[in-house]
Specification:
mainly alpha, three-stranded mixed β-sheet, 23 helices, 3 strands, 69% helix, 2% strand, globular
Length: 515
């Protein structure tokens, strides 16, 4: 109970600090104020009925997400409320991490160090990649908070009473956040290296004891992953037995286990690795602010640690720093996953490296003012950039609404819409492949809806109906007949904007060039 009381006191310290609390609230408002009050519907936001009411998330073995949203009755797009809750959770995560760091370092780090750490974490522009999709934003912050708390408990237990049952309980609890968003496993490993770095910098500890702590922590994680896989297998078995498994829906699988990879030659595999991992990272460093900041801070931290290693001959510190940085790439290499899939560990690492760099210069009389100014400027740039990314997505949504209303008005004016469903088609070759995710945060909802899921056009019609209309949904049989007819028709018919057939109204979305 003493540890629990210690953390209560640490959290109370930050809550009672006006400098800390007011600053991070201002940073949170600058970062999330616009998107909380100006909603935009993303490609997954319409699909709550599939994810929560249906079995899509269960089929992907993310049963924790399904459970959380059903328990909280979040089963449809919820503007303002859900985004505000997620923003509050970001602040909570920052406070919890600051409480952990301060408990270890006591008064060695001043309040402005924690302000910089929290501000960098809260305002990291990489956050926009999960924030704009309500089907995952809450689960990501909740799952990562649970993961970090488990990491703190394991740390305190090992260097305290070291009770085995606590480690087992933590392993079982870790199953829950991993079942919400599997990238929590990477967050856990990154945080593990951070805790080890903190431990060796605030007191003397043998390498043997540190290695045992690392092995124990990994074993706890393995317990969580193992239970997750077992529950996933059982879940899939039950869904298949009851014939309710969505076989056409699954999250990205590993490139290394794909048939495509197996058929490649050794040279082709090397090229595939370069194109799908290293090249993407380098492209994002050049094009994407949060990844560039991560890279710059990583290099500067390694240089500073090299200098300290030469002076003190302490290699263990450097190992922990390298482990913290490079463990952020585990899922990228294992799954060939795009950066925004595993972004939370990057956010925590950037904040921690920022704190490390700040403290490295804070003791120097003149340099500390320069580093404080740089930190403030970086936080301002991050809040502005994050806000701009949210605004970009809002502009995309406004264009989508214009298209939806334009289609609806013209269909209602010229067609028998009360008795015929609409089918919005798009030439898949013309759909923009937006690889650089900082440009507009994803694909057009209207175009995505043309190819999403196993049904035809349900999501596009759903988006149009979100604007206040009640158009009929097309059946699979009707859609198949229309596509067959279009393939056999001449170019002139396929080029028409709105075509009314005997049973269906066809809308060609290629008419809107700006989508």
């Amino acid at each position: 109970m003493k540890i629990l009381n210690d953390y209560k006191e640490e959290i109370k310290y930050f809550i009672n600090s006006k400098k800390y609390l007011i600053t991070i609230i201002i940073v949170a408002i600058l970062s999330y104020g616009f998107t909380v009050t100006h909603y935009s519907i993303g490609i997954d936001d319409l699909a709550f009925d599939r994810y929560v009411h249906g079995t899509y998330i269960l089929s992907a073995k993310r049963w924790g997400t399904w459970l959380l949203y059903n328990v909280l009755q979040i089963n449809e797009f919820t503007p303002f409320w859900l985004d505000a809750i997620v923003a509050i959770f970001m602040v909570i995560i920052a406070v919890v991490l600051c409480a952990f760091i301060r408990k270890q370092y006591k008064d060695k780090i001043g309040i402005w160090g924690y302000v910089i750490f929290s501000s960098l974490l809260i305002s990291n522009p990489l956050i926009n990649q999960f924030f704009i999709f309500q089907s995952t934003n809450l689960t990501i912050v909740v799952s990562n908070l649970i993961t970090l708390i488990c990491g703190i408990v394991i740390f305190e237990n090992y260097f305290g009473e070291n009770k085995k049952f606590i480690n087992i309980v933590c392993g079982l609890i870790l199953t829950i956040p991993i079942s919400m968003y599997e990238s929590c496993a990477q967050t856990y490993i990154v945080f593990l290296f951070i805790t080890m770095f903190i431990k060796i910098t605030q007191e003397k500890i043998s390498n043997k004891k540190l290695f045992k702590y690392f092995c124990l922590s990994i074993m706890v994680l393995i317990i969580g992953i193992a239970v997750y896989f077992v529950t996933g297998k059982i879940l899939i078995y039950i869904l298949e037995k009851n014939d309710i498994l969505n076989k056409n829906f699954a999250y990205s699988k590993s490139f290394w286990t794909s048939e495509e990879f197996k058929e490649m030659s050794l040279i082709e595999k090397a090229e595939g690795f370069y194109e799908k991992t290293l090249l993407e990272i380098f492209v994002h460093i050049y094009e994407y602010l949060p990844v560039a900041v991560f890279a710059i801070m990583s290099v500067l931290t390694i240089v500073l640690e090299c200098i300290k290693m030469i002076k003190t001959d302490k290699v263990s510190r450097m190992i922990m720093v390298l482990g913290t940085i490079f463990s952020n790439f585990i899922l990228i290499f294992l799954l060939v996953a795009v950066l925004y899939r595993i972004q939370f560990s990057w956010i925590i690492t950037t904040a921690f490296l920022g704190l490390y760099i700040y403290e490295s210069f804070n003791s120097r009389r003149y340099l500390k003012y320069i580093i404080r100014l740089v930190a403030v400027m970086l936080i301002i740039i991050q809040t502005r950039t994050l806000n701009q990314y949210f605004y970009n997505d809002y502009k995309r949504d406004e264009k989508e609404k214009f298209v939806a209303n334009d289609i609806a008005i013209n269909v209602m004016k010229n067609c028998d819409y009360k008795n015929k469903p609409i089918l919005c088609i798009a030439n898949s070759k013309n759909v923009k492949k937006r690889y650089l995710i900082n440009l507009d945060n994803g694909n057009s909802v209207m175009e995505w809806g043309a190819f999403a899921f196993e049904e035809y056009q349900i999501e596009t019609t759903k988006f149009i109906n979100e604007q206040g209309y009640e158009f009929l949904y097309i059946t699979e049989e009707q859609a198949k007949e229309v596509y067959k007819m279009l393939r056999e028709s001449d170019e002139e018919i396929r080029a028409e904007w709105i075509t009314e057939l005997d049973e269906v109204i066809v809308v060609n979305m290629d008419y809107y060039d700006f989508l």
